[in-house]
Amino acid sequence: MTSPAPAGTLAGQVPAGPLIxxxxxxxxxxxxxxxxxxxxxxxxxxAFGFLGPNGxxxxxxxxxxxxxxxxxxxxxxxxxxxxxxxxxxxxxxxxVVPQRDTLDxxxxxxxxxxxxxxxxxxxxxxxxxxxxxxxxxxxxxxRADDRVEPLSGGMKRRLTIARALVNDPDILLLDEPTTxxxxxxxxxxxxxxxxxxxxxxxxxxxTHYMDEAEQLCDRxxxxxxxxxxxxxSPRELIRQYSTREVxxxxxxxxxAGSEPARVAELLARDARRTEVLPDRVLVYTxxxxxxxxxxxxxxxxxxxxxxxxxxxxxxxxHLTGRTxxx
Length: 326
What we know:
This protein is of the alpha/beta class. Helices cover 33% and strands 25% of the residues. The chain has two domains: 20-237, Rossmann fold (3-Layer(aba) Sandwich); 243-310, 2-Layer Sandwich (Alpha-Beta Plaits). The chain has helices at residues 58-65, 87-91, 109-119, 124-137, 153-164, 183-198, 210-216, 234-241, 259-267, 288-297, 312-320, and strands at residues 20-29, 32-42, 47-51, 73-78, 94-97, 171-175, 202-206, 219-224, 227-232, 245-251, 273-276, 281-285, 302-309.
């Protein structure tokens, strides 16, 4: 279990070291271990991400960081405090954006923020001023007097983030912040989060979108089976676990079943690795043009050859596999 917080830690004081530090952190539910001894450190002003398939332990970790689920073993410090003994003090300095919006749809946009601000002890005048400030930040000023129910998904998500900022949190926890949003709404939300980071807010998020992780995260961990499979910046992870380029070869319909495997085997000599999928062969290499030329020279039944840069999604699938996890 977690041990007492270090002596001298004061409410409202930002520690000199990491804002979040976990060592050997474990979460068990009966005989099931959801988080299996992970080490995590998040610095002030950092955007830190948890990636992983369903059941990897991301949500269980976020709930421990959010002080709503106690650790089963290991140590965890949030803002230099112990979440078991100082949960209320920590929660007062956190902003939380849950995966599903919990807005009061019967109230107006402004009322949602004002009511929430009152929970944190702000006066009515302070709450109204804070609401106006945050709605301007979230680009919702023109909808301030509208009820929440008819708003678009993107607007509701921005309102949820605005509401989470009423207490000027040191850490903002975001669980799948853009799930279900269209591309335009996602990019607007990314811009708001980038602005928060520039203002010094520490962001901790989970996401299933690899492009989102590349855009927002300074550093991240890939979790699988309750453990950390890899850690680093998006660029570092791509460099370590993938290649500079990926060649996608699509073969003609009706080719022999062994043909894709033979293509992969012959091209593997000049590639770090190859992967045979039902509709194409992936060649991970630092010179995709050379690999494509080799395929053409050998007379393979290639319909199309696409060269693209390697992405975090390639890393993710390499580390966690392509099998669907429910």
